[in-house]
Amino acid sequence: METLMVDRVHGSLRLFMHRNAVFLCERLCAQFPSETNVQLLATCYLHNNQPYAAYHILKGKKLPESRYLFAMSCFRMNLLREAEDTLCPVNEPNIEVPNGATGHYLLGMIYRCTGRMSAAAEQFTQALTLDPLLWAAYEELCILGVAEDADECFSEATALRLQQEHASTSALEKSNFANENRILSSSLPSSLGDIIPNQMKQLHANNTAEVPGYPHARATALRVQNSTTSNVAQFDTPSPAATQTSSIVPPPLFRNVHAYQTTISGDAPTKQKANGANQPLRRKYLDEARLKKVSGRLFNQSSDSMPRRSARLSRETTINSNSNSNLSQFGGNGTDHSSGKLRVNSSTPSKLCSTAVRSVQVRKGKPRATENFDEGSRYEVIDEMWTDNVPATSSTASTTEGRFFEQDKAERIMSQESKVAIGIRELLGLLRTLGEGFRLSCLFKCQEALEVFRKLPESQFNTGWVLCQVGKAYFELVDYLEADHYFELAHRLSPCTLDGMDIYSTVLYHLNAEMRLSYLAQELISIDRLSPQAWCAVGNCFALRKDHETALKNFQRAVQLDSRFAYAHTLCGHEYSALEDYENSLKFYRCALQVDERHYNAWYGLGVVYLRQEKFEFAEHHFRRAFQINPRSSVLMCYLGMALHSLKRNEEALDMMEKAIAADKKNPLPKYQKALILSGLQKYAEALEELERLKEIAPHESSMYALMGKIYRQLNILDKAVFCFGIALDLKPPAADLAIIKSAMEKVHLPDELMDDDL
């Protein structure tokens, strides 16, 4: 009953019938209250999203599996300290982490959530060492920025190790299977174990008879009893003892045709003389009368005492006479021996020859050899011929066949092992490419990551996960059009995949694709209302409409659904910053950093807030931290240069602006900031040259024309200054800049000391 219930519980879990599994497992634990069954019930609770129930029944359990499940329950309930104490008890420092690689992975997640990144990296590395195919551990190492090259992690040495583990696992499974068979065999009734061998020995003993005229030959008759016949003719000749015949194994039925050919052709008697000394001593003292008696019973065709046997042998003689043409293949006219008891020739074929012929004929036709010798029983007589020749031939054939069987078995094993080796190498090659691309992407080496992802086969590249990674890489490269293309393709191929859709919504936000963003938000909500990505998309939709308060509510909803979703915290900080609520903005940015220390967007948000508050040292610190995480971002370089310029470190600021321009030549912001710094250094000609280059990239930027007007005013080229100010006003600048531009235009003809420096 217990086994049946356990099987049904596992079956329900496999079929995602979690409620049914919980119910059955509760009945199981009530009937058979063991800790193993409690572990199974806890597993059912976790599958049914009831970690509190698993927590309750596992509290205080000491088995490793129970500790792991209890720690998982604590982790899902956000009881991180208790989960850590369960996996690594303080009072037992030498105890092993339960459940191997997955236990170390869970402990690493706990360390990461509590801000101990180095300890988390150690646990993830240990998990990956125990299980090289634990992709989640390598993914976490990449997110932490400490993952080793994928070529080293998924190397040839790893492949050899996996092959060895697979071979040892297969050997263990075979050993367990053999042990189970042995246990089953030993559990059979003793009567069966005794009866079957005894019956086989008795059958062998009763069917062994001496052949007259051949002191070294035996004829073995294998009798097949007919279950519907009660009258069974039996030989009444005495049989050798079982101990004398138990070691004699009759040759295969139709295997050694060549042995029969060689024997009947006359070569066998010579060998018999040569090897006669090797026969058992009992052969030398057999009574001649016994030999005659056996001969009469086996080969006499006119006996009056056994009419049924005579009729049978007469029928055999008729059959054998019709088969004279087939006897030619066995060696001419036969062989005559000195004893005179038996003569084999073509005119009077003996039972020996007829048996040999039947053996050859049945081998050609390939049915099972059976001959109806009597009405009540069926006999098949197989002559062993001479004892030295036949056993040697049979053992040779058996050895050859055994060698062929072993060779075929070895070839199958080698083929299977080669397939396993090829499969392991192919899998590691795929993980190597995916891992290296993801590692480079997490290090924000986006161009290199794109090159690695392009090496994937088409079937792997055109999957939701890979296309989302490609879209993220283009997003970090500020190539929103390409990012939009790959995110859209990923969403089309895998519409129910929500990972990365928060970034996709931000891409559409930057592209001002309001209608598409609204449609995406509705679609994600319809797929899963409890996913933070869906509510981030809704928030971006309202943020694009400048409805910051509604956007903030949606971002907060995403935080409530998943407090470990760092990007939702950052988006809340952006909305508070847009509402000029800098205190709450700083709070949410810091929450994002508690979740993910390498979330550079939060560092950037903190720097922007401090820059607006004119806390330039703090701004420079946070921008530099973000730049250290993502050293290839043109935007971060530009804002760091702005902070340095505010700190009057103009040379450093110019160097940073040059790097920002080189990183992204299409980004207009660093060009404008460089011109502004050059203007502050009174390098007006260089500033105008930079602005002319900027005009080719962003010809409709009002702030650019306003700065050009100010420079022309400093150069006392008033008509060009008025012209540039007019263009700036025509481009409808923001309300904050509109008043400044109008004031500067009105004061063009005034002395320099009356001009504003707001531009």
UniProtKB/TrEMBL annotation:
Pfam families: ANAPC3 (PF12895), TPR_1 (PF00515), TPR_19 (PF14559), TPR_8 (PF13181). Keywords: Nucleus, Repeat, TPR repeat. Its main location: nucleus. GO terms for cellular component: anaphase-promoting complex; cytoplasm. The keyword Transit peptide does not apply. GO terms for biological process: anaphase-promoting complex-dependent catabolic process; cell division; metaphase/anaphase transition of mitotic cell cycle; protein ubiquitination. It is found in: Nucleus. PROSITE patterns: TPR, TPR_REGION. Belongs to the APC3/CDC27 family. PANTHER family: CELL DIVISION CYCLE 16,23,27, CELL DIVISION CYCLE PROTEIN 27 HOMOLOG. This is Cell division cycle protein 27 homolog B.
